[in-house]
Structures are given as structure tokens and as C-alpha cells.
Design brief:
Oligomer: single chain
Strand content: 15-25%
Number of helices: 9
Number of domains: 2
Shape: elongated
CATH class of the largest domain: Alpha Beta
CATH topology of the largest domain: GTP Cyclohydrolase I, domain 2
Radius of gyration: 21 Å
Distance between the termini: 54 Å
Structural class: alpha+beta
Helix content: 25-40%
Order of helices and strands: HHHHEEEEHEHEHEHH
Largest sheet: 5 strands, mixed
CATH superfamily of the largest domain: GTP cyclohydrolase I, C-terminal domain/NADPH-dependent 7-cyano-7-deazaguanine reductase, N-terminal domain
Amino acid sequence: MDAPVKPKKDSDSAKNKRPLIGKGPQLPKPSRDEAMEAVRTLIAWAGDDPARDGLVDTPKRVVKAYEEFFQGYDECPLDALSKTFEETSGYDDIVLLRDIDVNSHCEHHMIPFIGKAHVAYYPTDDRVVGISKLARVVEIFARRLQTQETMTAQIAFSIDEALESRGTAVMIEAVHQCMSLRGVHKPNVATITTQYTGIFKDDPELQTRFLQLVANK
């Protein structure tokens, strides 16, 4: 009997399932005036008068806020990670950033979810990145309409690809206001997601060490 064929470690089908890790889709945008008119429509649909004094400038404020909330669509995480350093003086261990603030918006209800991200990678001998760039990658993906699961994977895979690291580990803990303020109305319930690549995925002891470092506050 022929021996069973083992699947390839990182098959083409697995790669095709990876989330988008570059810039967001570059689609035609409505004009600013069209966006403000959409806000007026929502105000009226909610039951108020968009022309009253307290609301007359609200469409302009909302559009300006959206530019900030969703600026990640115009930025590329791979570019943020493009500058690396070769001098590591023999360092050969995990690099971890803990408690990175995360403020994003659920793509299902466009309501915020807020929490912390913990990001680690195991660099190759000659390729490390400035630590602020790791936080920047988290920020770029957070400034898009998201699911927490997708964002966790995007952060891990973008670091993995840009740095060609030996492995990456990402954990996000967040409270979703779409669960706190509507629906089941359960406040302060934390959702935890993780994504491992490379040696973090293959070595349970390394995963445990990552989790211990995150918890050691």
C-alpha cells in the first residue's frame, strides 16, 4: 500500500485563503457632499430634523470623523514594515509588543470595538524592524471596517510576509459595542482571537511562552 501523501506545509490553497494584507480596495468614492447628504438622510431616518441648530453641522463633523476612523484603507502595512535593520548583535529570541491600543469598527454594524493587541515575531538573524512599525501595522488594519478575526490574521500574515520572520504570534482582546449596546446587551464581554504562523504555529511550547509573556503584567 502506498504511503499517505502529506499535505504541503504552506500550500497554494492555504495562501489563497489568506486575508488581504496590502492597501484596502481602491474603489471610487462618493463626493464629500454626497457623504454629508447620506448623514442627513440617516438623521432624518432616526427621527430628527437635520436642519435644526444642533444638527446642521453634524454631517460635516461625521464625514471628517470617518476620514480619521477609516484612513487605513489608504495605507499599506507592508510599506510600514519595509525599513528593516540588519544589526542585531546576535539577538535570537522573541520580540513582543504588549498592550497596543486597538480602536476599530465592526463591519456588520459600524459600531466600535475597543481593546488591546499583543504582537510578537521571531526574527531571522539579519532582519528586525523598528518596534513602532509593529504598532503602526495594528493601527492601519484597525482603521478599516473589520471583524476581529480577520484583523488578527491580517496583522500576523503581513508581519510574516514583510519580515520573512521565523514565526509570528498575534492576540487581540476587545469589547464589541455591537454586543454591549444592542442585541443581547451584554457589556464588558471580551472577545479573544489569536493567530500563529511559522514556529509559533508548529511549537506549542512557544505558543505557551507567548501567552505567558502577554499575561505577565
